[in-house]
Design goal:
By secondary structure, the chain is α+β, with helices and mostly antiparallel strands. 18% of the residues lie in helices and 28% in strands. The strands form twelve sheets. It has a five-stranded mixed beta sheet, with no helix packed on it. A five-stranded mixed beta sheet has the order 35-38-32-39-40, with helices on both faces. Strand 7 and strand 8 form a beta hairpin. The two termini are 39 Å apart. This is YVTN family beta-propeller protein.
């Protein structure tokens, strides 16, 4: 089997030109969520940039996952599957205009037009239906519905991809909850056969020549082969991790399979059922995960393959005129998180899952009235106030890109490299300074031997540290100030204040993945919106479902492979047991330490930690990497009988202070560092951006009493710990991130920390029965963020400021720098 790297063949001139481009930038001040000017660069909150090619058609909602061209080629239907409105947009391609928005309720991925008749078939997500529309005079009209089962949670089916066999009047549908293939009769619109599969399925395609249907095993690293004459599975082909979208040549001989977790496309010979070639679509050879190769399309002559790299914000282009001997042609820049690519004549169509940029949020949780324009959780369907929620505000776009000439493709490729902060050089050698305790290379020695990584839940910078005049804070939004969080303030004053730190995640579903792997897989990114918007599906994250996990695992897996000792306190735990195998050895987790349970105080968790830690100190067996979960700053809102939000946060703060005090007075302190962050910021009030969050770094090697304004992120903190521990980056994101070496100095100050006492009653409980209490009673606190964050934040605000107070709208900064590159022609 041949393995082809995209980047090796592009040529060193791309890097030289990209470097030259970087010297010619003109700063602008603002960017709207629309198509930018030619060569305009939009910098995203994660440090990556966009220079989207072609024209942009705004879509009506977020996370478009798939599209289907009408038989006459005049229209394209796009299915929007995000946290907001789930619907189908009908686009007039000649006018490049959205002409219809079809409400669906629930939708997920599956979408196809018939070739003989203008019927559109669309997956109804967890409603477990397939809806058939007819295209008539510029409109999609609901014709009828095929039912696979009762809606979630009665039946857990969840149809995903589908395909038509019009000749035999069959519709084939695959699913990701009961893991099955359904063969359906198009005349009766009923399923006639169900075949069980051994893993979650993503989509299916028919061979145009052979009586074969190919099914991508999203959770199984294989392609199943189903014989449509025999009506049974007859074979399978092993591919790479997270196979999803597929394309097949017109002669039926070549099947191209995108592998999202591997940055690759498998080229399969349909006759021999063997992979003849694996195409690496990443920008650099041997890059870590992070390209998220998730869609493929062939040109009409089958000679060119287009590959959508969701997390690289680009298309990779290959010459596949000789399968098995393919060659790279270049890259094309797209919008943010491209999820689907299709060919329309002499144009490429690309759906961008997150649109064109991060942007301001002027209509956040406004308490003045109106109605929500997007769904939250089922527990929150009665609310009637306007807002812009981070999970649904980034409306997708459709890019219409003329198929580029060779010279244009070269220019596009240079832009893509310039947009990408990840390089192989950064992966191998990080930024830093001589003598700093944070190494610049994996394996270099650090005086820090023991790392403690503390995860908390869901607070923004202004909510906690907005009252500190030394930082960029807004005290009007500070509801958990010094009187509630004396230790957070003291740690920021005695060590380093970080006022420009941003979480990479939107919510806890992807937040714990980002915090523990520096990446969220396509399964996580594409599934959490359904769960969070109350459209069915279980909470399949935090290690609880294998298909959601990165190929090489989480930071504990990297420690295990490197021979670095580690121990876990509460993270990735469910009912007292670890959710992932790497933690299940009792030497790797503290069985007495509680996981998520807001009825248990964090000061109790800290006491359990102290007892366990002391026994390890006495045995001289303290692990070099330790994860500690302190979740109670999440709060239980105003739920009657639960601890008040102030008590929860004060308890969390006291636990953190005591933990730092205990470690800092231990024998290992002189070789230790403590890193603290929130898994996500969950849309709380912050005058800069709702991704901005609190973070703390504590060590004898910290520059004491300093303020650091450097832009850091979750990935930055991970990269710093990896360098200390001698671990490689886990993804392209932490490899590209700036390590936090600017917080450290070569000389140590071994003075210990003295925890501040709580100034308020940490045992206080909610006793008032008001509107906030009634609302809180409807929330589900059984899982992290199993409730809508904006309403919870408003409840928390009112609990502190008064029931009649008005919470400031969450702010979503443009967070971009638009730059114009000089034309190199």
């Amino acid at each position: 089997m041949r393995y082809l790297s995209m980047s090796l063949l592009l040529g060193f001139n791309l890097f030289l030109t990209a470097a030259a481009f970087a010297q010619n930038k003109t700063n602008l001040h603002h960017a709207e969520n629309s198509s930018p000017a030619v060569n305009a660069r939009i910098e995203l909150p994660n440090g990556w940039s966009l220079t989207p090619a072609g024209e942009s058609v705004p879509l009506s909602s977020d996370l478009p996952l798939n599209m289907a061209l009408s038989p006459d080629g005049n229209y394209v239907a796009v299915t929007n599957n995000g946290n907001g409105k789930q619907n189908i947009d009908l686009i007039n391609l000649k006018e490049k205009k959205r002409v219809q928005e079809v409400p669906v309720g629930t939708a997920w991925l599956g979408l196809t037009f018939g070739k003989k008749y203008p019927y559109l078939y669309a997956s109804g997500g967890n409603n477990n239906i397939i809806v058939r529309y007819i295209l008539d005079k510029n409109r999609l009209i609901n014709k009828d519905t095929l039912t696979l089962g009762l809606p979630w949670p009665k039946d857990k089916i969840s149809p995903t991809g589908l395909t038509l066999d019009e000749k035999n009047k069959r519709l084939y549908v695959v699913t990701k909850e009961n893991n099955a293939l359904y063969a359906c009769d198009l005349q009766t619109m009923k399923p006639i056969r169900m075949i069980s599969l051994s893993a979650e399925a993503y989509t299916c395609v028919l061979n145009p020549v052979l009586p074969e249907l190919y099914i991508s095993a999203w959770g199984g690293r294989k392609i199943w082969v189903y014989n449509t004459h025999l009506d049974k599975l007859v074979d399978s082909v092993t591919v790479e991790d997270h196979p999803n979208d597929m394309a097949i040549s017109c002669n039926g001989k070549w099947l191209y399979v995108a592998n999202a977790n591997s940055n690759t496309v498998s080229v399969v010979n349909s006759s021999s059922k063997k992979v003849v070639e694996t195409v690496n679509a990443a920008l650099y050879p041997d890059a870590p995960i992070g390209s998220t190769t998730n869609s493929v399309a062939l040109s009409a002559d089958d000679k060119t393959l287009y590959i959508a790299n969701a997390d690289n914000n680009c298309l990779a282009v290959f010459d596949v005129s000789k399968p098995g001997h393919s060659s790279s042609k270049g890259f094309i820049p797209t919008g943010w998180y491209p999820t689907c690519v299709r060919v329309w004549g002499k144009h490429l169509l690309v759906t961008n899952g997150k649109g064109m940029s991060s942007m301001p949020n002027p209509n956040g949780s406004d308490p003045l009235g109106g109605k929500y324009n997007t769904l939250y959780k089922k527990s929150d369907t009665t609310r009637s106030k306007p807002f812009q929620y981070i999970g649904s505000m980034f409306h997708g776009t459709l890019s219409v890109i003329p198929v580029p000439t060779e010279s244009m493709l070269n220019k596009y490729a240079r832009q893509v490299y310039l947009n990408t902060p990840y390089t192989k050089e950064k992966e191998l050698v990080a930024s830093g300074e001589p003598g700093n305790p944070i190494p610049t290379k994996q394996g270099d020695v650090s005086p820090i031997k023991y790392v403690f990584y503390v995860l908390k839940e869901n607070r923004t910078y202004d909510q906690v540290l907005g009252d500190m005049p030394e930082g960029n804070g807004d005290s009007s939004r500070c509801i958990f100030g010094r009187h509630v969080t004396p230790n957070a303030h003291a740690l920021s004053e005695e060590y380093v204040l970080l006022d420009n730190f941003y979480v990479d995640a939107e919510v806890s579903a992807d937040g714990h993945n980002w915090s523990m792997a520096g990446y969220a897989t396509d399964f996580v990114e594409k599934n959490w919106p359904s769960n969070y918007s109350g459209r069915g599906g279980t909470y399949d994250f935090d290690g609880s479902r294998a298909v959601a996990n990165p190929t090489k695992g989480f930071i504990w897996n990297y420690c295990q492979r490197a021979g670095i000792s580690f121990r876990n306190y509460g993270e990735f735990m469910d009912n007292g047991y670890p959710t992932i195998s790497v933690l299940k050895d009792t030497t790797h987790y503290c069985k007495n330490y509680p996981g998520w349970n807001l009825d248990i105080q964090d000061i109790y968790r800290e006491q359990v930690f102290e007892h366990d830690f002391d026994s390890l100190v006495q045995a001289k067996a303290v692990p070099h990497f330790n994860t500690v979960y302190l979740p109670n700053d999440h709060t239980s809102g105003m739920s009657k009988g639960s601890h008040t939000p102030l008590a929860h946060v004060a308890d969390n703060d006291l636990a953190l202070g005591r933990l730092v005090e205990h470690i800092s007075h231990s024998p290992i302190w002189k070789e230790a560092a403590i890193f603290v962050l929130e898994d996500d910021a969950q849309d709380g009030p912050d005058h800069v951006d709702a991704h901005r969050s609190v973070a703390y770094v504590i060590s004898p090697y910290i520059k004491r009493h300093s303020v650091n304004h450097t832009m850091y992120s979750t990935a930055s903190m991970l990269r710093t710990m990896e360098l200390v521990l001698g671990l490689p980056p886990m993804s392209q994101y932490d490899a590209a991130a700036t390590p936090m070496w600017g917080c450290f100095q070569p000389t140590a100050d071994n003075a210990g920390y003295q925890a501040r006492p709580a100034y308020i009653d940490i045992n206080a409980r909610n006793i008032v029965w008001n509107q906030s209490a009634i609302q809180s009673a409807q929330f589900d606190f059984s899982k992290a963020d199993a409730i809508p964050d904006l309403p919870l934040n408003e409840v928390i605000w009112k609990s502190v400021k008064g029931e009649s107070s008005m919470m400031p709208a969450p702010r979503r900064s443009a967070f971009v720098r638009l730059t114009l590159d000089k034309d190199d022609d």
